[in-house]
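User: Please fill in residues for this 174-position structure.
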Protein backbone atom coordinates (compact mmCIF):
# COMPACT_ATOMS: atom_id res chain seq x y z
CA UNK A 1 0.00 0.00 0.00
CA UNK A 2 3.11 2.23 0.02
CA UNK A 3 2.17 4.17 3.15
CA UNK A 4 -1.55 3.53 2.90
CA UNK A 5 -3.66 0.63 4.09
CA UNK A 6 -5.96 -1.95 2.59
CA UNK A 7 -3.79 -3.34 -0.20
CA UNK A 8 -5.01 -6.51 -1.89
CA UNK A 9 -3.62 -9.80 -0.63
CA UNK A 10 -0.65 -11.27 -2.49
CA UNK A 11 -1.54 -13.23 -5.61
CA UNK A 12 0.18 -16.57 -6.01
CA UNK A 13 0.38 -18.09 -9.47
CA UNK A 14 2.49 -20.78 -11.09
CA UNK A 15 4.52 -19.51 -14.03
CA UNK A 16 5.71 -21.50 -17.00
CA UNK A 17 9.49 -21.56 -17.30
CA UNK A 18 10.83 -18.71 -19.44
CA UNK A 19 7.27 -17.55 -20.20
CA UNK A 20 5.90 -16.11 -16.98
CA UNK A 21 2.30 -15.77 -15.97
CA UNK A 22 -0.32 -13.13 -16.63
CA UNK A 23 -1.87 -11.69 -13.47
CA UNK A 24 -5.04 -9.57 -13.39
CA UNK A 25 -4.73 -6.19 -11.67
CA UNK A 26 -7.04 -6.39 -8.63
CA UNK A 27 -10.08 -4.16 -8.31
CA UNK A 28 -9.42 -3.47 -4.61
CA UNK A 29 -7.78 -0.09 -3.96
CA UNK A 30 -5.87 0.91 -0.81
CA UNK A 31 -6.50 4.20 0.99
CA UNK A 32 -4.25 6.91 2.40
CA UNK A 33 -5.58 9.94 4.27
CA UNK A 34 -5.39 13.19 2.25
CA UNK A 35 -4.33 11.29 -0.89
CA UNK A 36 -6.01 9.86 -3.99
CA UNK A 37 -5.00 6.44 -5.27
CA UNK A 38 -3.62 6.63 -8.83
CA UNK A 39 -2.83 2.96 -9.49
CA UNK A 40 0.17 0.66 -9.20
CA UNK A 41 3.83 0.78 -10.20
CA UNK A 42 6.87 -1.47 -9.88
CA UNK A 43 8.73 1.60 -8.52
CA UNK A 44 7.96 2.55 -4.90
CA UNK A 45 8.72 6.22 -5.66
CA UNK A 46 6.72 6.48 -8.89
CA UNK A 47 4.53 9.53 -9.45
CA UNK A 48 2.57 7.95 -12.29
CA UNK A 49 0.84 4.58 -12.25
CA UNK A 50 1.74 1.85 -14.72
CA UNK A 51 -1.31 -0.28 -13.87
CA UNK A 52 -4.82 0.40 -12.62
CA UNK A 53 -7.99 -1.62 -12.54
CA UNK A 54 -10.57 -0.35 -15.04
CA UNK A 55 -13.70 -2.45 -15.53
CA UNK A 56 -14.20 -1.18 -19.09
CA UNK A 57 -10.65 -2.17 -20.11
CA UNK A 58 -10.38 -5.42 -18.18
CA UNK A 59 -8.60 -7.24 -21.00
CA UNK A 60 -5.82 -4.60 -21.01
CA UNK A 61 -5.06 -4.83 -17.32
CA UNK A 62 -2.94 -7.91 -17.03
CA UNK A 63 0.65 -7.77 -15.90
CA UNK A 64 3.10 -10.37 -17.14
CA UNK A 65 5.44 -11.52 -14.37
CA UNK A 66 8.41 -13.81 -14.71
CA UNK A 67 9.54 -13.62 -11.08
CA UNK A 68 8.25 -12.43 -7.71
CA UNK A 69 7.03 -8.89 -8.29
CA UNK A 70 5.86 -6.18 -5.90
CA UNK A 71 3.50 -3.47 -7.08
CA UNK A 72 3.46 -0.25 -5.07
CA UNK A 73 0.48 2.07 -4.68
CA UNK A 74 0.99 5.41 -6.41
CA UNK A 75 -0.53 8.36 -4.52
CA UNK A 76 -1.40 11.92 -5.43
CA UNK A 77 -1.64 14.30 -2.50
CA UNK A 78 -5.00 16.03 -2.27
CA UNK A 79 -5.09 19.83 -2.02
CA UNK A 80 -4.56 21.54 1.32
CA UNK A 81 -6.88 24.43 2.10
CA UNK A 82 -6.50 27.24 4.63
CA UNK A 83 -9.20 28.86 6.76
CA UNK A 84 -8.32 32.47 7.60
CA UNK A 85 -9.96 34.62 10.26
CA UNK A 86 -10.42 38.39 9.89
CA UNK A 87 -11.22 40.31 13.12
CA UNK A 88 -13.18 42.79 10.96
CA UNK A 89 -12.49 45.88 13.10
CA UNK A 90 -11.53 43.95 16.20
CA UNK A 91 -8.10 42.58 17.05
CA UNK A 92 -6.48 39.23 17.80
CA UNK A 93 -8.27 37.00 15.30
CA UNK A 94 -7.43 33.30 15.66
CA UNK A 95 -4.47 32.01 13.65
CA UNK A 96 -5.19 30.55 10.22
CA UNK A 97 -5.79 26.80 10.08
CA UNK A 98 -4.78 24.49 7.24
CA UNK A 99 -5.94 20.99 6.51
CA UNK A 100 -5.61 18.35 3.86
CA UNK A 101 -8.67 17.43 1.87
CA UNK A 102 -10.38 14.07 1.55
CA UNK A 103 -11.09 12.06 -1.60
CA UNK A 104 -13.79 14.61 -2.52
CA UNK A 105 -11.22 17.41 -2.13
CA UNK A 106 -13.04 18.78 0.91
CA UNK A 107 -11.14 19.86 4.03
CA UNK A 108 -12.97 20.01 7.36
CA UNK A 109 -11.66 22.45 9.97
CA UNK A 110 -13.07 23.33 13.41
CA UNK A 111 -13.70 26.91 14.57
CA UNK A 112 -11.55 27.63 17.66
CA UNK A 113 -12.99 29.10 20.84
CA UNK A 114 -10.97 32.35 20.76
CA UNK A 115 -12.96 35.58 20.51
CA UNK A 116 -11.39 38.71 19.06
CA UNK A 117 -11.98 41.74 21.31
CA UNK A 118 -13.55 44.99 20.04
CA UNK A 119 -14.50 47.84 22.35
CA UNK A 120 -18.15 48.82 22.18
CA UNK A 121 -19.23 45.73 20.23
CA UNK A 122 -20.60 42.27 20.93
CA UNK A 123 -19.03 39.40 19.01
CA UNK A 124 -21.78 37.35 17.35
CA UNK A 125 -19.74 34.67 15.59
CA UNK A 126 -18.07 34.24 12.21
CA UNK A 127 -19.55 35.29 8.87
CA UNK A 128 -18.63 34.34 5.31
CA UNK A 129 -18.52 37.99 4.19
CA UNK A 130 -17.35 41.26 5.77
CA UNK A 131 -20.94 42.48 6.42
CA UNK A 132 -22.61 39.07 6.67
CA UNK A 133 -24.53 37.53 9.53
CA UNK A 134 -22.84 35.10 11.89
CA UNK A 135 -22.97 31.61 10.41
CA UNK A 136 -20.25 29.77 12.37
CA UNK A 137 -19.46 29.53 16.07
CA UNK A 138 -16.75 28.02 18.26
CA UNK A 139 -16.68 24.25 17.80
CA UNK A 140 -18.49 24.27 14.43
CA UNK A 141 -16.92 22.41 11.53
CA UNK A 142 -16.31 24.33 8.32
CA UNK A 143 -16.10 22.35 5.08
CA UNK A 144 -13.81 23.92 2.48
CA UNK A 145 -13.73 22.85 -1.14
CA UNK A 146 -12.02 24.44 -4.10
CA UNK A 147 -9.86 27.04 -2.37
CA UNK A 148 -8.96 28.94 0.77
CA UNK A 149 -11.70 30.66 2.80
CA UNK A 150 -11.76 33.74 5.03
CA UNK A 151 -14.30 34.10 7.83
CA UNK A 152 -15.06 37.56 9.24
CA UNK A 153 -15.98 38.47 12.80
CA UNK A 154 -19.64 39.51 12.94
CA UNK A 155 -20.30 42.37 15.34
CA UNK A 156 -23.27 44.09 16.96
CA UNK A 157 -22.79 47.59 18.31
CA UNK A 158 -23.26 47.49 22.05
CA UNK A 159 -21.37 46.38 25.11
CA UNK A 160 -18.24 44.27 24.67
CA UNK A 161 -19.30 40.67 25.20
CA UNK A 162 -19.63 37.38 23.39
CA UNK A 163 -22.77 35.76 22.03
CA UNK A 164 -22.26 32.13 21.06
CA UNK A 165 -25.15 32.23 18.64
CA UNK A 166 -27.48 30.23 20.85
CA UNK A 167 -30.93 31.39 21.83
CA UNK A 168 -31.63 33.17 25.06
CA UNK A 169 -33.36 31.39 27.86
CA UNK A 170 -32.79 33.67 30.77
CA UNK A 171 -35.51 35.66 32.49
CA UNK A 172 -35.70 39.07 34.00
CA UNK A 173 -37.85 40.54 36.69
CA UNK A 174 -38.59 44.15 37.18
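Assistant: Residues filled in for all 174 positions:
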Amino acid sequence: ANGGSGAPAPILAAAKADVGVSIDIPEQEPTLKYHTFQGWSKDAKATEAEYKYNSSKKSQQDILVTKDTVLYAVWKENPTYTLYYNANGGSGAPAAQSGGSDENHTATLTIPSGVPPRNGYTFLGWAVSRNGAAAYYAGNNVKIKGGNVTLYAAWQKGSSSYNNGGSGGGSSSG
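For context: The chain is about 0% helix and 35% strand.
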